[in-house]
Amino acid sequence: MSVSFSSSPVAGSARLLPGGPVADRILAEVAEGVAALRAAGVVPTLATVLVGDDDASVGYIRIKQRQAAELGFASPHVRLPASATQADLHRVLADFNDDAGVHAVLVQHPVPGHLDYDRALQVLDPDSDVDGMHPVNMGRLALGLPGPLPCTPAGIEALLAFHGVPVAGREVVVLGRGATLGRPLAMLLAQKRPTANAAVTVVHTGVADWPRYTRRAEILVAAVGVPGIVRPEHVRPGAVVVGGGVRYAGRRLLPDVDESCARVAGAITPRVGGVGPTTVAMLFRNAWWAARRAAGRG
Ligand SMILES: NC(=O)c1ccc[n+]([C@@H]2O[C@H](COP(=O)([O-])OP(=O)(O)OC[C@H]3O[C@@H](n4cnc5c(N)ncnc54)[C@H](OP(=O)(O)O)[C@@H]3O)[C@@H](O)[C@H]2O)c1
What we know:
Pathway: One-carbon metabolism; tetrahydrofolate interconversion. By secondary structure, the chain is α/β, with parallel strands linked by helices.
């Protein structure tokens, strides 16, 4: 079913745009692709690195390893103690770079406060970067060159396409210009491609009257990290609203988009299970692509 933009929605009628089915479809494609590589004698390998013993990070990496195994990846793991130095982390990444059998590398973040994740990322071979956040990959994105894509933005494009939300030629407003989400998403959705090709505007703290822009958006993406910042009065009636920004209070997830926006929006991502599942799916898609490229099949 596709989504159309309505100027007179029925209150409370917003259609939900869950990420789960989108992720399932992407992961099925990844599993098929991984199996094909294995059949051709290549074992797609996604290495994971964890520094320290933060409970949440230990849990996240375990889930990703289990999912990697289910998809058919080999998944060597290195765990460094919380006392590891920046040089220790760089050494692990350099060793993975030198190992032709390792196609993709995931560094679980956040890393302990004394370490610099961004600096570590720069040590990694850009082609192995499953987060798509290496400066070379951001440059590739800006130039429209192939490479691993930042996971959350790529997941949002996939989510909109899956749910039949027309993006091409539409007015998209992205609230937030952060490096993980707003900025790369704006670049992605402005690219010349049927699932993108939008008129994209980015607003932030430098635009005091940002509601003036969000109120005219046919698609509004919240990419801020300020709970409840997007309220019904910021949404054009009938618009598609995508909640990307979140903050955590302990284990509780606090989204940018206030739930009451569903009264005004035509379609909206759910509070939980929106862009989270598609982000993870894109990580595995990047890992599969990395293996395919390394095998000369990308
Ligand atoms: N769901 C997921 O899987 C997922 C994945 C990645 C990121 N995220 C979330 O996405 C959000 C953005 O992450 P990020 O790293 O890209 O961004 P970031 O670096 O934290 O930047 C936040 C952006 O929001 C803007 N902003 C903050 N307060 C504002 C306000 N009151 N009014 C207008 N603009 C405001 C900032 O403006 P200035 O530039 O002017 O300071 C900045 O551009 C975070 O909540 C993050 O947790 C979610």
